[in-house]
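Hi C.,

You asked whether I'd gotten around to modeling the 552-residue construct. I have! Everything is below, sequence then structure, no commentary in between.
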Amino acid sequence: MRRIPPRLVGLLAATALLGFAGCGGGDDSGGSETTAAKSGGTATGYGTSFPDYLDPALSYTVDGWQTLWVAYTPLLTYKHEEGVGGSTPVPGLAEELPKITDGGKTYTLTLRKGLKYSDGSPVKASDFEHSIKRVLNLESGGSAFYQNIVGANKYLEGGKANADISGITADDATGVITIKLNEPDGTFPFALAMPFASLVPADTPFANQTKNPPPGTGSFKITAVDGTKGFTLVKNENKPAIDAIPEAKLDTLKFTIVKSAARQGQDIINNKVDYIIDPPIGEQLREARVKMKGRFREITTNSTYYMFLNTRLAPFDNKQVRQAVNYGLNKPALARLFSGLMEPACNFLPPNMEGYEKLDPCPYGDPNGEPDLAKAKQLIQQAGATGAKVTVWGNDEDETRQVTVALADQLKAIGLDARPRIVEGSVYFQTIGNQKTKAQAGFANWFQDFPHPANFMFLVDGASIQETNNQNFGNVNDPVINSTLAKINQNADLAAVAPQYAQLDKRLIDEGLVAPYGNRKLTLTTSDRIAFDQVVWHPLYNVDYTTFALKQ
């Protein structure tokens, strides 16, 4: 996922760029004792912009998913835990994890009995097919995750909203749901856990329901949607008794959209609001780090920022040159461009997911240390690439522009004749994804759609290379990586194949096929009215609103 809330674009100029990614840092709860908290009450929050949608079939941004996760529930979901514990699908509205047969092409699940939506109406097995139809019919950004279902493409081509998807059958009497796939797909359990697959009533219209969100089965229900000015989460009294879905501790969480970053930062520091989605910026970020002890954290989330190196083009068709770039990247300097909201890294895969094994030691030196410029220059000389002309591509968003200039400067420092090339942000990824552009190297990043290594490794899979809209910007086409991915991507038992993803991650770095430099950080900031040490930061959905509670 490359979509990020608008607030995350341009903050670098204010010295406090933030986004997704990294790990640790900042202050935690401030002690080992658990803060006494109470049930009920109202808390307030600020958002910089209204979520893209408050309809689970359509939303595809972190702001949207953070809200929808606690209001809607798919057949599978995630535990409300931090780290890897929150990264594995568990039964949601389904009684158990799916039974997978037919060589990985048939999934059978059974809906829990007695489920009700927030309006009190019964949940039916057939609601699942209607929910998937809405994703496909509304041309949602999530459509691709479900087009492997038998009959999904025929449904799309037919253009009739109420037509049947032949690969989905449901028995409302028994609650049994059967899904047939065209090809085995080991990531399909994760697709079943995405907000797109949340169940909504079968009479939910085939239209954007943001103004009047449909009933759901989560801990909260969404109410009081006020245009683009705000909305309210209210405790769902009809929430199903499911272990994976905790009761909301608050009665109400009211969100207001506040465009001014300065006002947001000042109000959270002064306890005038209980929570802000985006971090304080500029001087207020530095002030928060000092003054907000016990109610401020910096968290490394699952994303990767990296420099792509086009292996089809000189000089990056040479392994020594690619390795030289990895030796020469000054990762701490790049992190400073993000005001420290970046965790330097060696791996391409991010932490907090199965399949991640930290490369320790990193073959190119400590990511938090100084680059080995002598080694990098030596490799450039050995490759006969000293003075080779290189264009480093980036876009005109403030953070990317500055990082792109820095990357070009770092390539100059190892002996390449590098210059930045800045493209308008709205067309950047399309531009470098067109083979006719012949982009040699440049800025790239990725934020997870779901916590599975395949969601990152497709970016370096030779099978994903395209002439246009190519997301394998480096045209990485390694036979070992390709053949291994073709096999393990079909296996739905991630634990069984996680070590192989880790091996591919190591090979990717050893061969210098990409040049990662860090994982982005976000901040968790609350007022001192909130029991801060009880707030969970989920590896996929960020702040878990069900864990917000007022102090006693």
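If it helps when you're writing up: The longest strand covers residues 514-526.

Thanks,
B.
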